[in-house]
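Suppose you are handed a protein chain with no further information: no name, no annotation, nothing but its sequence. What can you learn? This example shows the usual starting point.
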Amino acid sequence: RNDTGRLLEYSVSGPASGMPVIQTGGYTQTGRFYGVQPAFVKLYAKYNLRVFSISQPGFGRSDGTGPGVWRKAKDWPKDVEKILDKEGIDQFLVLGTSFGCCVSLAVLAAFPGRALAGGLLSTTCPREVERKAGVKMAAATRIAKTLFSVPVVRDALGKMVGGMDTVERMKLAPDCREAMLRMDDPSDEYCVAHNLDQIKRDFIEDVQRSLAHTWRGLTDNMVTMEKWSAGEFDLGSITVPVIVSSAPDDSTNPPQMQKWVAEALPRGRLLPVPAGF
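A reasonable first move is to predict its three-dimensional structure. Written in structure tokens, the prediction is:
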């Protein structure tokens, strides 16, 4: 629990002697998915990584911040520090996915000398940068983000979206939905070879689990993302290497976002991949 008594859920996976990694997943994901999914567990063993994957407030068993209490990305390191102290972790790596990247950047900025390097998969960017750059995201995604930013609408929208099944909810992120439809295609040799149908089932189960406790994570974390500003913490102070992956077919977090983040980091390196899928 953090200083206010709010419960933090996290999973631990990988060899006990492995290099610690603080991992934060994307919107509607929990730490459990990254902690138990067999494909990930194999990678942790292969590269000798001890991964501490944290569920954001309001997702899984992590308590929400409560009505009218909105946290900023820069507040996340305080929660992470509780886990570092509890687990006796000194130096560590940082890994973030999608929305989890903005709070992972806050962790990298907050722990100089302890956070040794970072990896950001499909990162988002501050909203003012998104607007100035004219980022072309999927229409459904843009509409949802805009509505979640309206105080009188966000709670009702959170309850409604929280009541949807996972596949229906994915319509708000068309690129994710398209990938999910492909993952269990028996005629797709890549999917079959990499057992992606099982990863899809685990992913759906995790998203359902993320909202089983409360729908508040949908609003709490969207507001955190909405309030993330370019000046909230100094990206220029992050002097460790950070790899930023980017895919041309990502319409939820389009490539312009990753390009901005990579260029804002002194040692950021953009890593283009052929497809987000």
